[in-house]
Amino acid sequence: MATMPITKRGSEKLKAELHRLKTVDRPWVINAIAEARAQGDLSENAEYEAAKDRQGFIEGRIAEVESKLSTAQIIDPTAVEAGGRVVFGSTVDLEDEDSGAAVTYQIVGEDEADIKQGFVNISSPIARALIGKEVGDVAVVEAPGGVRSYEIVDVRYI
Q: In terms of domains, do 29 and 53 share one?
């Protein structure tokens, strides 16, 4: 099975979610199922069906998170020595060559991506265009919204 890169922060976030699922959500849904069973006829019990559906979702998510953590390759961006090149975990300051707008992105794993927070997925068009580039290089991004050009202003490993 292939490894999945993830930052240390992303790993901690998944571990916290797994802990919550196992210690809060799972016991809650088991209790909800027990309460619904106590109401009698299960064939027409909407609360029972809803609780069973929720249990299925929780158990599926637990399995998914455990699988992701077992295949995760945890990368600490502060320990990366890339010689100024953009690599996984890098925080990159960019300037849009058309508008002059400045943006900052950190290249992260699939589960950590949140473009509004400045976290881009390693397999996104912008991350693929940036990987391997250095300060002063221009990255041409073929995004769904059209082709954009960004000049790399700074690369940090934080």
A: yes
Calpha distance 22→77 (Å, rounded): 29
Q: Name the residue range of residue 135's domain.
A: 77-156
Q: Is 101 found in the same domain as 149?
A: yes
Closest CA to 108 of 63, 157, 71: 157
pLDDT of residue 1: 58
Contact in structure between 108 and 91 (CB atoms under 8 Å): no
C-alpha 48/C-alpha 32 separation (Å) is 8
CA separation (Å) from 137 to 4, 28, 98, 122?
27, 53, 15, 19
Sheet holding 102-108, edge to edge: 119-121, 102-108, 91-96, 146-156, 138-143
The predicted model gives 48-58 an average pLDDT of 94
Paired tokens of 53: 């559906």
